[in-house]
Amino acid sequence: MLRLLLTLCLLTASLAGRAGVEIGGTRLIYDANAKQATLSVNNPDDRSYLIQSWVDKDPAAGDGDNTFVTTPPLFRLEPHSQNSVRVVYTGRPLPADRESMLWLSIKSVPSISKDETNRLLISVKSVLKLFYRPAGLSGEPATAYEKLTFVRRGGQVYVSNPTPYYVSFYDLSIGGLPVKSLPTLKPLSGQSLDVPAGTAGAVSWRAINDFGGITDVRKAKI
Length: 222
Hints:
- It contains one helix and 18 strands.
- The chain has two domains: about 20-135, Sandwich (Immunoglobulin-like); about 140-220, Immunoglobulin-like.
- A hairpin with a 2-residue loop joins strand 11 and strand 12.
- The longest helix is centred in the first third of the chain and has 8 residues, at about 1-10.
- Strands 1, 3, 5, 7, 9 and 10 form a six-stranded mixed sheet that branches. Strands 13, 14, 15, 17 and 18 form a five-stranded antiparallel sheet that branches. The chain has a four-stranded antiparallel sheet with strand order 2-4-8-6, with no helix packed on it.
- The chain is mainly beta and about 220 residues long.
- Pfam families: PapD_C, PapD_N.
- This is Fimbrial assembly protein.
- Belongs to the periplasmic pilus chaperone family.
């Protein structure tokens, strides 16, 4: 029983800013011309939190990545206060002709007072997309989603992204049917999407912009 309680107390929930600490964004753009990218961390709670941050190539694997470092990597966030996590590029080689995507994790661990020793407190890990944007890329990131093309190939629809920017779908429907598993399209590449047999008509989609907002609807025929 004691082991179970200890396990529960150490439970980490992969949520995005649901309770306690608030993260100032759902994604972070690192401009190659800048010395760093900054993300605010706010604590509206009456308790303090220990904030830990790091960058991963794969958040599920937790493999870490030393292409970027966070500073401070660990700090105490007092009640009703705000601080920032700064992401710094270490200079390790990344493609210069397209964006690179990594993952920024921010973990908040609530403090425990003496009278809360038997209370369940859950740490929360927020995982955000981190986009490294090289200087001099062609086109505009705000209009990259408009450049997508869709081609029917048997029981699939192939979507192509000819731009050097990542495109994250907010929603996507083909022939009036919503696509449930929405991909994030890599730059200068494409992906095949399974669709029901006989699906035809128009494709409509919206994407998520640099600020976490939603773009206007775009439509195309297949």
